Amino acid sequence: MRILFRYLVREYLKVFLMCFAGLMTVYLVVDFFEKVRRFIRFDAEAAHILLFFLLRTPAIAFQIAPLAVLMATLLTLGILSRNHEITAMRSCGISLYRTALPFLLCSVVIALALFLLSAVVIPVTNAQAEYVKTVLIEKKNPLAILKSIRPWIQLENQTLMNIEVMEPDGLTLRGLRLYRLGSDFRLLEISEAKLARFTTEGWVMEDGVTRVLLPGGGVRTEPFTTKPLALSHDPADFRAGLSVDSEELTLRTLRMRIERLRQDGYQVARLLTEYHGRIAFPFVSVVMAVVGIALSLKRTGTRGGGMAIGIGQALVIGFLYWTTHSVAIALGRSGVMAPLLAGWVSNLLFLSYGTYLYLKVSH
Predict the structure, then answer these.
(1) d(CA 243, CA 237)
(2) Does this model's pTM top 0.85?
């Protein structure tokens, strides 16, 4: 059995690497020709363009690996079926479960690798790729902002602004703090506001208080209902990346951010949905393996399925999964569906479908 196990793993990995390399090549070629014409207009250096696509590779691999797992499962079992090897195994008393076990174990290893990429590696490479694209390729001046969990912006008159939360549309900033410094960098004034809105007259702070630090050590408090905010950035600047994208946060940092915002009373459905989605998506590799095994074994005895049928099935199933997952995530972000359910419902649906097909075959 160990010889058979190693044989099945070896055959599966050969096909998986072939499918993975093919999908990566297609994706990178399409992405390259889509972006390179824009990059050329900025007279970008070839080294910077190459670095950008190199940094994008982990995120691309994360997206296409589950499809490669499904395609490799269908093709490997299709080849084994065409060569009557599955029939021979069943004739020797080897169960379908033992036949499928090597593929399931390989998919679990791939899922764990993808989870590691999502949790640690991809946030770093995404942030670096965005920097290379914005600063080195498009030659844009980096904004005077620290991209962190709580963004900082340098304003005029030696003033620093700290923002707790930025809405996705960029029209509302929540949890503002303004720190005005003197010429000797001594703190002169602190202003806090519940939120700031972008209006036809510019940015306006609402429901806040200003504390002026007096020379003698005293503090003068000045509450306000509304107060103009001298901020040169418009909503488009915030939408374009002044706030931190959740994809640029590690899972641990994202979880800490969600807990802090929840304690402060903010709605966290969008971030919580993205958090559960990032945990669930790597394990779609296992789901795709189960579906692929069930579909392939169902065709056993029908003289194989052919490579074209296997690739076609993989593309259709991949499209259906991606559509279901995208709709569920959208519902979770809007609060219509519970974030935990939105992140995992696609996996549960397709796993149930694959398990149903497998049980029909095994009986």
Answers:
(1) 9
(2) no
